């Protein structure tokens, strides 16, 4: 039986069981704790004591070795293991925990909600969330897909939960998840790689390592804040504002065009979306 949810003022905080103590669990837990989710209402389980203790010590939440013990006491179970581990984790949960009255939220890429019903039982209440790591600092972007039967209460709960670590977007159709993963789930990595390459080039051009990082970070932060403050301006207009005719930026952007940066990015995003589709198909086939 789950413990009674913690109440603080008018707010009720269901107990959350995070299954998995990796990057994504950590990012969401950090974001939740920062926004005041009660630490004692959050528990994490994973095989590695070191990883569990790291999250527990850093954010003050509970930890358990055993998924079963964690899930039993929770109102909502958050599946934060790699897709390849998901079947094993789900089948064990189904056998060991009464999932009736519990909400299951999965963060995994490439596994459709229909698949979870095969693993966890047709009646399981499952919601799919695709977050990203900036949730760690409350700046995440999460896509939420709720199958038809999802209760309004569950939808609102997931919306509130993920809003506390960033922005949310409801997906009407699960097939939209492939584009969402390519555009938001994976994209922080694209921006980090872009910054990494600018930093390395700056060093080659004569900047010190520290200077290069500082210049990249502040310029990227400035550019992003500027774009956020002027949503009416297209990205093209913002780029035009930097580009003087016959000047330095023009030379850099011409080089992007010559080497077809746009095509490279399109190809990379298609690869991410295609991988998501292929994973969904392969999980469905493996278990048909
Ligand atoms: N990283 C990201 O940016 C995003 C990830 N996701 C999704 O989130 C999920 C987790 O990804 P991420 O956090 O990056 O992965 P990590 O590899 O960082 O973490 C996976 C965690 O799962 C734990 N684990 C493995 N087996 C079990 C088990 N049997 N029971 C409980 N826990 C187990 C691992 O344990 P241990 O600590 O012992 O190794 C580890 O803590 C994936 O499905 C991914 O698709 C979604 C959006 C973005
Ligand atoms: O790389 C992945 O598969 C996961 C999903 C989106 C970000 N990380």
Automatic annotation (TrEMBL):
Residues in Pyrroline-5-carboxylate reductase catalytic N-terminal domain copies = 16-110
Q: Which UniProt keywords apply?
A: Amino-acid biosynthesis, Cytoplasm, NADP, Oxidoreductase, Proline biosynthesis
Location relative to the cell = Cytoplasm
Which terms does the record give in the GO molecular function aspect? pyrroline-5-carboxylate reductase activity
Q: Does the keyword Transport apply?
A: no
Which pathway does the UniProt entry assign to this protein?
Amino-acid biosynthesis; L-proline biosynthesis; L-proline from L-glutamate 5-semialdehyde: step 1/1
UniProt cross-references to PROSITE patterns, sorted A to Z: P5CR
The family database entries (NCBIfam families) matched by this protein are listed as:
proC (TIGR00112)
**What protein am I looking at?**
Pyrroline-5-carboxylate reductase
Q: Which organism is it from?
A: Thorsellia kenyensis
Name of the encoding gene: proC
